[in-house]
Every structure is written in C-alpha cells, then in structure tokens.
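Reopening this one. Same input as before:
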Amino acid sequence: MPDEQYYIVRGAQMRCCCGDNLVGTHPRKINLPVSHGAYVKGKPMMNEDDCKPDNIPSFGICMGSNQTSTEVIYLISEDGSQTLSGPPCIPKILQKWSNAKQTMLVDGKPALQAESSLYCVNNGKIRFFTTGQDEQ
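Same output, byte for byte:
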C-alpha cells in the first residue's frame, strides 16, 4: 500500500488546538470500537466518518473561546505539576474529518491521513500528532 505510513489507525494521538494554542488540556487517542476491515501494520484504519463520541473522547479541560458550559471538572496537568479546573473539553463536531484521502477507501469512505483535521464548535481544531501505527 503506497504511503501507508501516513494513514491513521486506531490509537493515533490527537490534540485539540486553536492555532498554536491548546484548546483541550490533554491529548487523547482516537478509538474505533469495530474495525472497518482495512489494516496497516495489523492495526485498523480509520475513515472520515469516525468522528462520533465513541471515536473521540474528551480532551480534558476546554479553553475554547466559544465554550459556554458552566460545569467544572478538576484534572492533573499532563506533567503532573498542577491541578487544572474548568469546563470539560467534549468536542461538539461541526462536520466530518477534512483532508481525508479520497483515493484510499476504508469501508467505502475516504481514509484518514496524518493531515486530516476536525473542527469543534468551541473554536478547536483536532489534529493528529501520531498516526498510531507505532503505538503499543
């Protein structure tokens, strides 16, 4: 499979950002409860429709400019040095993944690739920083 190193598989790490600023305080891994039947390095590939709550977990605390939730949660920072508080960063997805690979179909839909991104109503842009292929 050409360029297989660029395809996203279950377990790829992602962050929610706005420009260079974090919107979500914690990175997360994309999930795929049921495989689509296509694999890279033995790991299930993702497609542009994998943008539902069972695929994308909370990114910790939301710092997005459009956040309206009054709920407050408490989490330990990534480096463990402090306690953070604020509204939960639960993505409210505006559309399916953009920049999916149109010429590589996974379960009949374009495959996610390293450049794919997803937008949240809270001004967040979800992007991958690993493909998941080398994760344990």
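So the earlier flakiness isn't reproducible anymore. For the record, The chain is about 0% helix and 30% strand.
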